[in-house]
């Protein structure tokens, strides 16, 4: 038997590098200050004021959205570009808003690229769910990239016709709104996003959502949209470890079936099955690079203040939600 096969495979050095925090697979490089996996880490530690952050602190995140987290129990890689591919009526827009809100709840920052709606309407989606984002706007933790308003024929007329609430919300959010003067220019869209990320100091933290790739495609055309996605996937997700979540209704036969444009795809569907005279909604992870996920569908519903929540496979939507312990939590009236 070869010497390699006779070798005990138990690691001889189950130590953690004092700089990169990854396991040391061979003899460590040692100094008075610690043990390192490589000369590169030893020298970097000597030049740096502190070690790298723990990888788990920024390389994966739990979304806080119950149906999605139940399918990806160990978290989504933070360098992911994630596509929400949803049928009309599956509340994919609410899912995007909820993902941003959950990031804010974790004390992180969020950027919402608003293409399908003006910024005040995008902010109103938070309020429709009972989520007050005014403190996040004031505390410089939320930015809205406005790719909608400059598409209007008469922007001033739109501003004049807003009701009192929309006017108040727009004025309160004014410094948090990043205007994109030409959303048909993919470079301007990307640069506006980078300016927002820089202003919020978003690296290894936070989340970006895009409310509609379909609307962006109508502005940029298919190839330019793909170029934009590849650009921001590289410069935001891969370089900064900031995940991007983008919504589309293109479905399985549409964008981005060319292969490597995105890291993950979550399918959202309306089923023919009904409960309480309502067609049920379900979601599943079709693809997620770098993470384990359960290959199954989860039936879900949505409730203001609660967001998306999973339904038991056999639960009547009128009765309540399965708590996983043999009991049902009654749903509040809608």
Automatic annotation (TrEMBL):
Known Pfam families for this protein?
ATPase
Instruction: Report a single Gene Ontology molecular function.
Output: ATP binding
Q: Which UniProt keywords apply?
A: ATP-binding, Nucleotide-binding
Q: Where is this region: Disordered?
A: 311-334
Gene3D superfamilies per record = P-loop containing nucleotide triphosphate hydrolases
Q: Which domain of life is it from?
A: Archaea
Q: Which SUPFAM superfamilies match?
A: P-loop containing nucleoside triphosphate hydrolases (SSF52540)
Q: Where is the KaiC-like domain?
A: 63-288
Q: What is this protein called?
A: RecA-superfamily ATPase, KaiC/GvpD/RAD55 family
Organism from which the protein derives: Natrinema salaciae
Q: What is the lineage of its organism?
A: Archaea, Methanobacteriati, Methanobacteriota, Stenosarchaea group, Halobacteria
């Amino acid at each position: 038997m070869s010497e390699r096969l006779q070798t005990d495979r138990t690691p001889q050095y189950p130590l953690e590098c004092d700089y990169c925090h990854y396991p040391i697979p061979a003899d460590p490089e040692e100094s008075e200050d610690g043990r390192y996996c490589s000369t590169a880490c030893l020298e970097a530690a000597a030049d740096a004021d502190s070690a790298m952050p723990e990888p788990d602190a920024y390389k994966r995140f739990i979304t806080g959205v119950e149906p999605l987290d139940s399918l990806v129990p160990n978290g989504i890689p933070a360098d992911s570009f994630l596509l929400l591919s949803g049928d009309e009526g599956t509340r994919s827009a609410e899912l995007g808003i909820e993902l941003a809100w959950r990031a804010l709840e974790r004390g992180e920052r969020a950027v919402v690229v608003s293409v399908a709606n003006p910024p005040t309407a995008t902010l109103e989606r938070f309020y429709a769910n009972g989520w007050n984002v005014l403190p996040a706007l004031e505390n410089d933790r939320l930015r809205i990239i406005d790719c909608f308003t400059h598409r209007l024929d008469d922007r001033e007329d739109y501003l004049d016709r807003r009701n009192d609430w929309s006017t108040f919300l727009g004025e309160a959010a004014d410094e948090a709104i990043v205007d994109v003067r030409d959303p048909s220019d993919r470079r301007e869209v990307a640069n506006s996003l980078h300016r927002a990320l820089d202003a919020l100091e978003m690296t290894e933290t936070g989340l970006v959502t895009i409310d509609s790739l379909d609307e962006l495609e109508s502005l940029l055309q298919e190839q330019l949209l793909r170029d934009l996605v590849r650009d921001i996937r590289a410069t935001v997700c891969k370089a900064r470890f900031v995940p991007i979540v983008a919504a589309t209704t293109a479905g399985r036969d549409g964008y981005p079936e060319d292969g490597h444009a995105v890291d993950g795809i979550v399918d959202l569907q309306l089923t023919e099955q009904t409960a309480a005279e309502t067609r049920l909604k379900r979601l599943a992870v079709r693809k997620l690079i770098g993470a384990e996920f359960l290959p199954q569908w989860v039936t879900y519903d949505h409730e203001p203040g609660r967001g998306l929540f999973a339904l038991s496979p056999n639960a009547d939507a009128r009765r309540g939600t399965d708590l996983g312990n043999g009991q049902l939590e009654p749903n509040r009236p809608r």
